[in-house]
Each structure stands twice: as structure tokens, then as C-alpha cells.
């Protein structure tokens, strides 16, 4: 488990991270979602102690020594591997092997063969997608328990995305407490991989959701009949007149349907919302209430 308590980081005059608190359970894939500039990368760097926080506590409960052991259990792949520029993939493999006990050369060889990576080429001379594949290969060869991935599939070709998703699943299958925290702008990535969603905006954590429950609770409902009390129903996000019907968007689909029937209204159609639309609406509504 990772427990963040009132984490606060002042980045500059225009941006602050937190204070924010959350708990990440072992054995889960958690998607960190938010608009550009929400603070996702800063949060990753803070968790990994690559930047110093002003206040708050982070507890790393993975059976490791707090002072040193947790850094062996945690692996991080940043958005861009700037610190590794000037080195070839082969040189980085030698560095990782010396730096991380248990680093698996055979696993690395399997991954570089899968991704068809040019081992003698310097990292900065690779395409963005190939850089992502290279860093993931180096990192998955480690014996880590927690994997932090910052936009892991951005800029990766379709085949590579599928391969990398498969490798993330393979990583989770190593043990019951394997954990991934990934940032992403892709609703498909969240839908296919994530168990939980952490939604961020302007440095703050808006909410934490169980993905399947979130998707199940949102619907678009078309209604005819007496709709005068629609807007007062709990979980009603929006309503609009569509000819003889009223189109409703709700975040509380089951209860709204039951209430509509009690009102004598006729539900003519119910359509689940796509995850990308749900997240867009939540972020938009939070902006209105800010």
C-alpha cells in the first residue's frame, strides 16, 4: 500500500501540488487522470523523492525498509528519458544490471527482442515510441513491486501499445501485490487496464473511483411523460428537450430510473456513457463549481 497524507509541493508562483491525500492498494492498476498541467508528473516525482515536498507524509507499505528498501521495490518510467541521453540501450542495460539487485538480463533480452530495439543506438536518437519501449524493457527487468508509468503509451504505434499492455498485465501476474500507477489521457487505456481512477485538476485530487462502478453508474436516458421534476433528482447532471422526449444524463442511473417510474414518466431508452465522456463531464462540472 502507498499512503499519501496531505502532500504539498510548491512548484513555482503559478502552480502548487496539493495538499492531497490518497491510498493506493497493492494488487491494483490505478490510472492517474487529469488535464495537461494537472500535476501528474509532479506527483510521480514527489512519490519517488526526485523533488522535495514542502509538507506531508508518504508511507510505503510493501514490506520494505523505509529508508532504503522501498526504492528497490519502486520502479519509475518518466515521460521522457532525458537523464539517459548520451547512452545506448546496451550501456543502460549494463548500468541497470549494476544498480539493481536481481535485474534480469534474460527478461531484458526477451523484451528488446519483442520490441525489436536497436541496442547500440543512443536513446535520444530513437523515436519517442521506441524510447518508451526501451525504458519499459529496462524497468520491467527489475524485481520491483510497484511500477510508476508516466504516459507510457503516448507516441507508441498500435502494435507496440498492444504489446506494452500485455507486458503490464504480465508484470501484474508476478505476484498478488504487484501494483501499477500510470498517468494517461487515453480512455481506452484506462478502460482496458485500470482498476481505479484518481482524477486530478490544477494540482488537486478531485476524487478516487472504482472504474467499473463509475462506468455502471452513468447513463444517458430518454424519457417521455411528466418530466417536471427531473432536474431535482439526485445524480441528474443535465437535461435537454429532444422533440417529444427529454434526454437526461445522470451519474446515478439505477436510482434515477426507479424515480422516473414512480413519477409516471416512461423511459424509452437507456444508453451507457463512454468512459471518456464521463471523465470529461466530471472535469467540466468541477470547473463550474470551483
From TrEMBL:
Classification via InterPro entries:
AAA+_ATPase (IPR003593), ABC_transporter-like_ATP-bd (IPR003439), ABC_transporter-like_CS (IPR017871), ABC_Transporter_VariousFunc (IPR051782), P-loop_NTPase (IPR027417)
Q: List each copy of the ABC transporter domain by range.
A: 2-227
Entry protein name: ABC transporter ATP-binding protein
Q: Which Gene3D superfamilies match?
A: P-loop containing nucleotide triphosphate hydrolases
Record key words, sorted: ATP-binding, Nucleotide-binding, Transport
Asked if the Swiss-Prot or TrEMBL record annotates the protein with the keyword Signal, the reply is no
Q: Tell me any Pfam family this protein matches.
A: ABC_tran
Q: Does the keyword Zinc-finger apply?
A: no
Q: Which GO terms describe its molecular function?
A: ATP binding; ATP hydrolysis activity
Amino acid at each position: 500500500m502507498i499512503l499519501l497524507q496531505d502532500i504539498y509541493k510548491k512548484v513555482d508562483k503559478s502552480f502548487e501540488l496539493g495538499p492531497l491525500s490518497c491510498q493506493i492498494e497493492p494488487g491494483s492498476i490505478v490510472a492517474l487522470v487529469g488535464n495537461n498541467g494537472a500535476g501528474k508528473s509532479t506527483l510521480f516525482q514527489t512519490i519517488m523523492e526526485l523533488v522535495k515536498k514542502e509538507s506531508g507524509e508518504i508511507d510505503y507499505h510493501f514490506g520494505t525498509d523505509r529508508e532504503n528498501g522501498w526504492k528497490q521495490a519502486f520502479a519509475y518510467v518518466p515521460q521522457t528519458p532525458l537523464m539517459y541521453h548520451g547512452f545506448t540501450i546496451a550501456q543502460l542495460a549494463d548500468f541497470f544490471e549494476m544498480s539493481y539487485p536481481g535485474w534480469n538480463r534474460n527478461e531484458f533480452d526477451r523484451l528488446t527482442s519483442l520490441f525489436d530495439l536497436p541496442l547500440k543506438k543512443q536513446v535520444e536518437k530513437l523515436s519517442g515510441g521506441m524510447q518508451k519501449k526501451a525504458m519499459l524493457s529496462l524497468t520491467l527487468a527489475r524485481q520491483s513491486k510497484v511500477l510508476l508509468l508516466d504516459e507510457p503509451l503516448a507516441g507508441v504505434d498500435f502494435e507496440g501499445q498492444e504489446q506494452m499492455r500485455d507486458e503490464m498485465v504480465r508484470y501484474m501476474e508476478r505476484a498478488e501485490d504487484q501494483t501499477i500507477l500510470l498517468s494517461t489521457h487515453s480512455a481506452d487505456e484506462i478502460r482496458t487496464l485500470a482498476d481505479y481512477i484518481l482524477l486530478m485538476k490544477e494540482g488537486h485530487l478531485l476524487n478516487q473511483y472504482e472504474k467499473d462502478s463509475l462506468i455502471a453508474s452513468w447513463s444517458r436516458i430518454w424519457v417521455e411523460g411528466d418530466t417536471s421534476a427531473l432536474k431535482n433528482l439526485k445524480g441528474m447532471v443535465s437535461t435537454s428537450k429532444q422533440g417529444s422526449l427529454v434526454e437526461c444524463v445522470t451519474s446515478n442511473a439505477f436510482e434515477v430510473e426507479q424515480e422516473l417510474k414512480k413519477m409516471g414518466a416512461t423511459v424509452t431508452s437507456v444508453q451507457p456513457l463512454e468512459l471518456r465522456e464521463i471523465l470529461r463531464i466530471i472535469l467540466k462540472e468541477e470547473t463550474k463549481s470551483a
